[in-house]
Amino acid sequence: MAIHNKTEEQIKDAIYNLFTRCRTEKSPDRKPVLTSQLCEKIFIWCRDYLFTNEAEKLGLEIFNFTMRIVREDSKANIPTDKKEFIKYLFSSLKKERAGYYRKYESGLIKITKENKSKIKAVEDTIRMKECFLGRNLTEDEQSQCISKWFKKQEYIDLKNKIYANSPSDIDKVGVYDDPLNTYLLKIDTEIIQKAVKLVLDKKQERSKDCYKALFTLFCFENNLDMLYPVLDNEILEACYEYQQKPKQYEIYLKYHPEAKKASAEAIASKMLKDFINDLKENLDNLI
Q1: CA 216 to CA 137: how far, in whole Å?
Q2: Please, which residues have CB within 8 angstroms of residue 146's CB and are 6 or more apart in sequence?
Q3: Of the candidates 259, 181, 167, which has an alpha carbon nearest to the alpha carbon of residue 220?
Q4: For 211-235, how does the pLDDT look when each residue is reduced to its tens digit (9 = 90+)?
Q5: pLDDT tens digit string along 136-183?
Q6: In Å, what is the CA distance from 184 to each residue of 170, 221, 228, 261, 283?
Q7: How many whole angstroms separate alpha carbon 166 and alpha carbon 61?
Q8: CB 107 within 8 A of CB 239
């Protein structure tokens, strides 16, 4: 087991404090330094606690995300309360991770594994130098970074191939999103929340909480955050702590402690499937 220099809570405290300082810092010389420190702390959190075996290859995503959250125009969209900020941060990093796999490891992008790694190295180098200098690199400076791995035109061609698969095209073929996720994104949030409540109201009292908890876990894992207001807050809290995120069978055992693990897994899976089918049926009636 890896030994970490700081606990997860200490890392989250440091991230929140640096984020607050970055957003209030007025000095054009000091802000890039604080931003770089914030990026480093977020990377450490990912490396040591969130995405242990993946943090290294998510370096650019972490960097770009850090740059976005300290921009002036993003202030209104980011919670200032520490607890809510950490929830926002974790959810956002999950989306950055998903975006990485869509972009670099999709079967739709026909480039070699070696070139994927080299492209990632170029982008990491450029962004890290920009962070250190506190400004965008000039075209000549970017070319110098690229030249370590590619001829400039080769790099441009590969990048064009990556970005040829736009998010809208991906959504149309349904390659990445869960079918329910794709379906729900096309429906008004209030209608979906109403449908969830209707389905729960029809469940027996002794099983209602279990259904709700199982569906909450599903929504968290599929980034259906527009449904959080009608879901199980206790499960959401556990999910945001990451290392405490429950499994389906553990949720079932909470309400049925006499069950065996093997049967709990099967029953929980069936309950979730039944709930989703009921939800789709209710949505069809409401739309």
Answers
A1: 44
A2: 122, 152, 155
A3: 181
A4: 999 999 888 877 777 788 889 988 8
A5: 777 788 888 888 888 877 787 676 565 444 333 323 222 233 456 656
A6: 16, 15, 14, 31, 9
A7: 17
A8: no
